[in-house]
Every structure is written in C-alpha cells, then in structure tokens.
Amino acid sequence: MNRHHQQGSSSLAFVLLLFSLGMLILNGLQQQLHGQRTAVAGEVRYLKEYAAATSAMAWGGQQSWQGKKHWQCQQQTTGWRACLRITEDGKGIMAAQGVYPKESAPVTLWRWGTLSSGRWAAAPHGWADFCPLPEVDACLLPD
User: Fold this and answer.
1) Count of domains observed in the chain
2) Whether the Cβ atoms of residue 82 and residue 57 lie closer than 8 Å to each other
3) What distances in angstroms separate CA 57 from CA 10, 99, 115, one per listed residue?
4) What share of the chain has pLDDT > 90, as a percent?
5) Which long-range contacts (CB under 8 A, 24 or more apart) does 119-123 make?
6) CA 79 from centre of chain
7) Labelling 8: which of 27, 88, 97, 99 has CA 20 to 30 A away?
8) Does residue 1 carry a pLDDT above 60?
C-alpha cells in the first residue's frame, strides 16, 4: 500500500510541475500579446491620423488663401486644419493636420507649392517629412 501511495504522490507532483510550467508559459505569452496589441493600436492610431492629415492637405488645397508671410490657418468642421505661409522668396509651404488625441503630437504633413490669385497649387514633388523652414520658430503653427 505504501508503494501505491508513493506512486500517487509522484504522479501528483509531476502533474503539479506540468501545471506550473504551463502557467508560466501562458503568462509569458499573455505579456507578449499585450505588448503586440499595444504596438498594433499605436500603428492603427498613427495610420488614422496620417489619413486625416492627408485629407486635410487635400481640403486645404481647395480653399482660398491670402499671400501672407506668416501662418494663416483654416479649420474644417471635422477638426482638420490646413495652414499656409509664403516664404521670403515667394514660395508657399502648406502644413496640414487631422484630428488627433490631445495627449499626442499631431501628424503634420508639409508640402511646397505656389499661391496664385488665392489658389494653392502644390508642387508635384514638394512633399517634406518635416518642416523645411530653416528657423525653428517659423515651423510653429498657431493654436
């Protein structure tokens, strides 16, 4: 009878060991899944903001503008906004932003172009990944 009791205890210990290892593996997988879920959510948020900024750029290109050497902005009812500034050499730079959560920095798209009779004409290869103006203060859009 003692031998059967020892076999049962060994089997129980082995089952508990397997159970513990399984729990550790599942916990590790759960942590990986949480990290990946957070990364995917960030990517989705960025893609939505980028799409909104692209829409704001297209919308801004359809608006009437004045040829001012300081930022002038127009905002659409959904929250998109486009801003235009004419540089000293007569070129125009448009910045566009979509709606974004207040806790994060907005995705801002920049594009060179020209302004003629109040109409914006974007340069075909005028996209910039960052503010192309040389002065940092010149890149600050009004609130």
Assistant:
1) 1
2) yes
3) 70, 12, 15
4) 48
5) 119/64, 119/65, 120/60, 120/61, 120/63, 120/65, 120/84, 120/92, 120/94, 122/61, 122/94
6) 16
7) 27
8) no
Task: Kindly report the pTM of this predicted structure.
Answer: 0.75
- Beta strand 81-86 with 72-75 is antiparallel
- Domain of residue 13 covers 1-143
Q: What is the pLDDT of residue 123?
A: 94
pLDDT of residue 56: 94
Residue 74 CA to residue 102 CA, distance in Å, equals 19
Length of the chain: 143
How does pLDDT run across 76-106, given as a tens digit for each residue? 888 889 999 999 888 999 999 987 666 677 8
Q: At 38, which amino acid appears?
A: T
Residue type, position 13, single letter: A
Cα–chain center distance at 40: 12
- 22 C-beta neighbours (distance < 10 Å), count: 10
